[in-house]
Design goal:
There is one protein chain. 38% of the residues lie in helices and 16% in strands. The chain is α/β, with parallel strands linked by helices. The protein has one domain: 3-Layer(aba) Sandwich (Arginase, Chain A), CATH 3.40.800. The strands form two sheets. The protein has an eight-stranded parallel β-sheet with strand order 2-1-5-10-9-6-7-8, with helices on both faces. A two-stranded antiparallel sheet has the order 3-4. Helix 6 links the parallel strand 6 and strand 7. The N and C termini lie far apart (40 Å). The chain binds zinc ion (ZN).
Amino acid sequence: MTPQTLLISDARFLEHDPGPGHPESPARLRAVVDDLQGNPVQGTSWSTPRPATEDEMLAVHEPAYIAALAARARTTSHLDPDTATSPGTWEAVQLAAGAAVQAVEEVWSGRAANAFVLARPPGHHAEGEHAMGFCFLNNAAIAAQSALRLGASRVAILDWDVHHGNGTQHLFEKRSDVLYLSAHQFPFYPGTGAAAEIGRDQGAGFTVNCALPARQTDADYGAVFQDVFLPALSTFAPELVIVSAGFDAHARDPLGDMRVTERGFAAMCSGVVESHAKVVLLLEGGYDLTALAGSVRACVQVLAGARDTFPSGAGAGASDAIAATRRAHGRSARHLFP
Ligand SMILES: [Zn+2]
């Protein structure tokens, strides 16, 4: 049988409830899954995850932090001002990380053509030793470590969430085997992600930040892909690209202030798929339910074989940000950009 696009989700992800009025609500995932199950995309199949093992979590996080999270199992508490647990949180957190590892295993082995992990809570703000910004475990980092354990020598994490993935950057900034690429609104939460942050020590040149002003469009993101992300992927030649796929850069999103549409996300996903690496998408942010469901569907259609392109007409804001990124990397010895 031809390998299909694997969608991994679980009703237990809905049991993480950070409280009334919180934007990272169970309704987000319900909207995504209802849409895809109500009107299935041809060429996709579903699976449910296993929890991450302790070893998988400890490959990224400090033992004391994992112990502290486990101690809060079945309780309601706050880990930071906007990151709260409910009785179902710890199980959902372990399943979300396990789903990311499972997606890598299925795609790496060739049993799945590619995969989209439809999980919550998200992960890219989570640091090695603490929770942050709605995130508990860094699912993308745990997935990247599992790929290296399976034998990958180079993994890229491409983060198109409107927020910078501070946790992911910090976990890999001294490493040359994991390339971190992020386009995000800047200055904005969490405050990191300036173009000058290019990695350090052995990892200098392997962190690529495109710090964009607000109100960037599909065409602007197209320029970022054309001039920064795709050349970097081509030079680095990862065997696997893990996408931190947040949809809060959508024009309708209540937290972000970008102007991306479903077409823009489909074009970003097309660019990644055409990079010839194996591809795993992990759901990060996205807080307008209609925009989220429509944008996830657009990406699933691309994973299943459709393609989309960016419109032309990038503005000066994107050009300036791209120039700053390339300038910062021009001073590194790595030559990711030809
Ligand atoms: Zn976000």
